Amino acid sequence: MRRGPRLLCFLLSAALVLSACSKPTSPPSFESPSPASGTVTGLSADAAAIASERGLSPADVAAALKTYVPSGKLDEAVMFASGGHSGQVIAIGIPSMRILKNIGVFTPESWQGWGYSDETRAVLEEGSVEGQLLTWGDTHHPNISETNGEYDGEYLFINDKANARIAVVDLKDWETKQIVKNPLTLSNHGATFIDPNTNYIFEASQYAMPWTGEYAWMDEYQEKFRGSLTAWKFDRAKGRIDVEQSFAIELPPYWQDLCDAGKGPSDGWVFCNSINTEMATGKLTEDDPYFETSTAARDKDYLHIVNWRKAEEVFKAGNFVRINDFPVIPIETAVKEGILFFTPEPKSPHGVDVTPKGEHIVVGGKLDPHVSIYSIKKIEEAIASGNFEGTDPYGVPIIPFDVALEAQIELGIGPLHTVFDDRGYAYTSLFIDSAVAKWSIGSERPEDGWKLIEKVPVQYNVGHLAALEGDTVKPGGKYLVALNKWSLDRFSGDAEKGEFPGTGPLLPQNLQLIDISGDTMQVIYDMPMGIGEPHYAQIIKADRLQSWSVYPENGWDPMTHSVSPYAVAAGEERIERNGNEVHIYMTAIRSHFTPENIVVKKGDKVHWHITNIDRAKDAVHGFGLAAYNVALSLEPGEHADFTFVADKEGVFPFYCTEFCSALHLEMMGYLHVEP
Ligand code: RUQ
Ligand code: CUA
After folding, report:
1. CA distance 444 to 446
2. Which element (helix H / strand E) includes 334?
3. How do beta strands 340-346 and 300-307 pair?
4. Torsions phi, psi of 353, nearest 5?
5. Which of 122, 159, 339, 653 is the most buried (most CB within 10 A)?
6. Closest ligand 1 atom, CA of 483?
7. Which residue, 459, 85, 370, 418, is CA-closest to 271?
8. Ligand 1 atom having least distance to the Cα of 536
């Protein structure tokens, strides 16, 4: 407490001079209370001394004040970021940029026992490909469930690009509940994107291929390779994707890239862009160019405009074929029924993002310095009046570019992804420029029109951006995070000068927090991300989340959200044998397991059931069993099961892996496997 008044004084006095902090001058001076610009005046002597000693400029001090969340205070928002090829989801507090949790999704995660219990293993197994259990994924685009276009904080969806899978995470307990494998394809990217009421989770395939399980050589590319857009029906009451109510639309073998679902006037549509409308087949002979070149030969690719409401009707009417036992609306049907349209989009598009009001669709092209902004009104008018400039080779009608286009703004090199704030501004990442461009949405800021407002450099090769609720109908403004790909000169120094040389050849990504509340954007924090590559992220206001801190009842099975039939109550611990099947019913409570000594025979099939009967908020126990590769997390009230054949004889210690009490080390026992 003795430091309290001093800190308060520092904060208050620094806050008073924030306006003087916007333009750092070097070297900064904190010593003399001079009115010169760039000087932090009015700081307490202590605070000024600290800033001066640490070489902090006035801008640094302002940035620190904006991001610092004191110990014991809570963040105002949470960012759910994909973990890239770590296969996980990372939750990060905003504005502190503190990592809160790394949620196990496609990759086993031993702290959470993810993939080690029967229940969680079954979820990973749902995501198997032809019987092969996969132990990693490549997560790209998290999407929080929405109600009327706003995050409702109930569920989080995320894709696995590497294997075309979708996962459902329940935000009540921040655990993955379901993984579905796309039966048609092995690669996705335009996923997961949901409509404003989370009816469907959309998944566009990325690399066209013959339907899973079929073989074709590249000379049959145009005939046999295909793309697809899958609409996974979400059953909110069950908290699961309802595979039976889901369907796909066949697409030409372009490489569909990102997607976004419409909202407001564009609700009912999904927009996906594409690359490789050249239908290049790669380097087959010495003379062929690489994909890198051949997929960028044409000036324009196609923005896919898909009427999912119409597609849903067609699916419900039974107007589809079954491929790999999954309902697919053929391209022909999609064209005939008015489900699928194209409009050209500039060279190598990447991001496609619908504006908060839903009137416009923003496309960034990697090889074009503009963002192209399309109007849903113009698109619908063109469709209604049949204003097409012909079709693609698969018969899909093409709306002329200048007919669908509302505006184009030159932003810089490599525009990728766009998010929005609450003042009618859009923010687009510029990958090659390593900058973020802020521009005005002409229809919302007629005083500015469609124009570039300013740019801020980031460090660097920025991919996605995430803004506070910045892809919803009501963006929150205030915070923007640049999810940069590399951090070449951020977390490493010059070894020759005796500085920290860095983290080895694999560099962490660099996430930068940007204050967008003022007239100019300011980078205020750098955060190394050392556990994966966050592609996309969403930032939700913390008060929208309604997570549990303790499971509702003892013996809770998080997968069914009900009490497990194997739940064990205090006093009911036992070991039951039936032939060579042994059931162990165990409880965990601070600081012991019951029973502690367990005897089975070599070759027995062991079904082990453990309930954590503690109800206190922090009374988490873990369970680790040597040699049998078992790791469980038993959160307050949680029940878990695991099954194995005791094929190794000997004595195997098991213990609680969470430091749950002063006598936590004693929370252990022995499994005896008799010869
Ligand atoms: S990606 S950096 Cu969304 Cu997978 Cu663009
Ligand atoms: Cu329970 Cu440590």
Report:
1. 6
2. helix 331-336
3. antiparallel
4. -140, 130
5. 159
6. 2
7. 418
8. 3
Span 577-611, pLDDT tens digits:
999 999 999 999 999 999 999 999 999 999 999 99
Q: Which ligand approaches the C-alpha of residue 614 most closely? A: 2
User: How does pLDDT run across 166-211, given as a tens digit for each residue?
Assistant: 999 999 999 999 999 999 999 999 999 999 999 999 999 999 999 9
Q: Using the atom order of ligand 2, give the atom closest to the CA of residue 621.
A: 1
Structure tokens at 624: 């680790």
Residue 34 pLDDT level (bands cut at 50, 70, 90): very low
| Residue 252 confidence class, pLDDT cut points 50, 70, 90 | very high
| 660 Cβ below 6 A of ligand 2 | yes
Pairing of strands 537-541, 522-529: unpaired
How far from the centroid of its chain's Cα atoms is residue 433's Cα?
24
Query: What interhelical angle do 58-67 and 4-16 show, nearest 10?
Result: 120
Distance 272 CA to ligand 1 centre (A): 13
Q: If phi over 0 gives left and psi between -120 and 50 gives alpha, with beta otherwise, what is residue 477?
A: left
Q: What one-character DSSP code corresponds to residue 468?
A: B
**Ligand closest to CA 666:** 2
Residue type at 208 in one-letter notation:
A
Contact (Cβ atoms closer than 8 angstroms) between residue 441 and residue 360? yes
How far is the CA of 120 from the CAs of 123, 176, 511, 641, in angstroms? 5, 8, 31, 9
Given a contact cutoff of 8 angstroms between Cβ atoms, the answer to whether 432 and 413 are in contact is yes
Q: How far is the centre of ligand 2, averaged over its atoms, from the C-alpha of 648 (Å)?
A: 26
In sequence order, the 6+-apart residues with CB closer than 8 A to the CB of 266 are 354, 358, 359, 361, 376
Q: CA 370, CA 428: separation in Å to the nearest integer? A: 10
Strands 175-181, 165-170: pairing is: antiparallel
**Angle, helices 45-53/4-16, rounded to nearest 10 degrees:** 80
Residue with structure tokens 């079709």? 391
E-strand ranges in 140-224 read: 143-147, 150-160, 165-170, 175-181, 188-194, 200-205
Q: What is the Cα–Cα distance from 121 to 103, expressed in whole angstroms? A: 15
Q: Ligand 2, atom 1: nearest CA belongs to which residue?
A: 621
Closest CA to 545 of 174, 123, 14, 92: 174
Q: Which ligand is nearest the CA of 462, by number?
A: 1
All residues at 6 or more sequence positions from 595 whose CB lies less than 8 Å from its CB, including other chains = 573, 575, 584, 586, 669
Instruction: Kindly list the structural domains of the chain, giving each domain's residue range(s) and its CATH number in brackets, ordered by start.
Output: 3-67 (no CATH), 77-544 (2.130.10.10), 556-674 (2.60.40.420)
- The residue assigned the tokens 């099975």 is 557
Question: CA dihedral defined by 346, 351, 352, 356, rounded to 10 degrees?
Answer: -130
Contact present, 433 and 390 (Cβ < 8 Å): no
Residues with CB under 6 A from ligand 1: 140-141, 189, 258, 350, 416-417, 463-464, 535-536
For residue 338, CA distances in Å to 258, 305, 310, 314, 395 come to 22, 10, 8, 10, 12
Q: Three-state SS for 63?
A: helix
Nearest Cα to Cα of residue 480 among 532, 518, 427: 427
